[in-house]
Design brief:
Blueprint (H helix, E strand, L loop, with lengths): L1 H16 L4 E10 L4 H6 L7 E11 L2 E13 L7 E4 L1 E6 L4 E6 L6 E6 H7 L4 E10 L2 E8 L5 E5 L18 E6 L3 E11 L9 E4 L9 H5 L6 E4 L8 E3 L2
Parallel strand pairs: 7-13
Antiparallel strand pairs: 1-2, 1-12, 2-3, 3-5, 3-15, 4-14, 5-6, 6-7, 8-9, 9-10, 10-11, 11-12
C-alpha cells in the first residue's frame, strides 16, 4: 500500500508541478444528523442549524485546508456553549508531511504525521463506480466506501490527491463532494490562481501529543476573529469569519 501511495503521489504531483496554476475550492459543511446516542442525551441538537465554510488551496506539492467562517441559523440554547477556533491543515506531498495548526494549540506549535501513515491507516476502501455527474461544472466520478456508508465524488481531471476533512482519500482526483451518514461537504466555489502557499515554521509535535494544547479559557480569549463562541448571545443569520 505504501508503494502504491508513493507512486500515486509522484504521478499526480508531477502533473501539478508542471503547471504553475493553483486551485482553491470553497466547501460548505453541514451536520445532516446527529447520532441517536447523542440526541438521547441532548435532544435539542435536532433543532440546531449551523453551516461552516472551508477553503482548500493547492499549489504545487503543498495544500492548505482552512476553516473560514460559520453561519448559525439556529442554536437552541441549553445552558452550555461551544468554542470553535480557527484551524489550518497543511500537506506537503514532497516531504510526506501532514500538519494541523489550530487555536487549540500554543502559538507557533502544530501537530504532524506522515501522509503515508494516514493513507495506510484510513478505513476507506473505495469501490469506484462508472457513475458520473457534473459538480460545479466539472465531471466527477462516484466512489463508495466498502461499507456503503460514505460517498465521494472526485474529479479525475483535477489531479490532486486531496479533498475536505483530513484530505487523504487515496482517490485518483480531487474530492469535490463528500457525504457520510452524519455530514456533508459540497463545493460552492472553485477558483484558479497562481498564488503560492508557504507552511509557517511551526514547532512540530506528534499528532497524539497533548502538551501543546491550551485551556478552554485561553481559547475563548483568542478573540472573535480566531475563535467563534456559540451561545445564546451569538449573532445569528450571517457569516461569522475567522482570521
Amino acid at each position: 500500500m505504501k508503494n502504491l501511495w508513493a507512486t500515486l503521489a509522484i504521478i499526480l504531483f508531477a502533473e501539478i508541478q508542471g503547471n504553475a496554476q493553483g486551485i482553491t475550492v470553497v466547501y460548505e459543511y453541514k451536520m445532516t444528523r446527529y447520532p441517536d446516542i447523542v440526541l438521547k442525551e441532548v435532544p435539542s441538537l435536532s433543532e440546531q442549524d449551523i453551516r461552516t465554510r472551508y477553503s482548500l488551496t493547492i499549489h504545487g506539492s503543498i495544500s492548505r485546508f482552512s476553516r473560514d467562517s460559520m453561519y448559525i441559523a439556529s442554536y437552541p440554547y441549553n445552558g452550555g456553549q461551544s468554542v470553535i477556533p480557527f484551524q489550518h491543515i497543511y500537506k506537503n506531498y514532497n516531504e510526506d508531511l501532514w500538519i494541523r495548526s489550530s487555536g487549540d494549540y500554543k502559538q507557533g506549535h502544530a501537530v504532524s504525521k506522515k501522509l503515508s501513515y494516514i493513507s495506510e491507516n484510513r478505513n476507506y476502501k473505495w469501490q469506484i463506480t462508472q457513475e458520473q455527474k457534473q459538480i460545479a461544472g466539472i465531471t466527477c466520478t462516484k466512489a463508495v466506501s466498502e461499507q456503503g456508508t460514505t460517498t465521494a465524488w472526485f474529479a479525475p481531471t483535477l489531479p490532486y490527491s486531496d479533498g475536505p476533512q483530513e484530505g487523504v482519500f487515496n482517490l485518483p482526483g480531487l474530492v469535490l463532494y463528500l457525504e457520510t451518514p452524519n455530514e456533508k461537504w459540497e463545493p460552492i466555489k472553485i477558483l484558479l490562481h497562481d498564488t503560492s502557499i508557504e507552511i509557517p515554521p511551526f514547532n512540530l509535535v506528534p499528532l497524539n501529543d497533548n502538551k501543546i494544547t491550551i485551556s478552554l479559557d485561553e481559547v475563548r480569549a483568542l478573540g472573535t476573529d480566531r475563535a467563534i463562541q456559540i451561545n445564546e448571545n451569538t449573532t445569528k443569520g450571517f457569516w461569522l469569519k475567522f482570521e
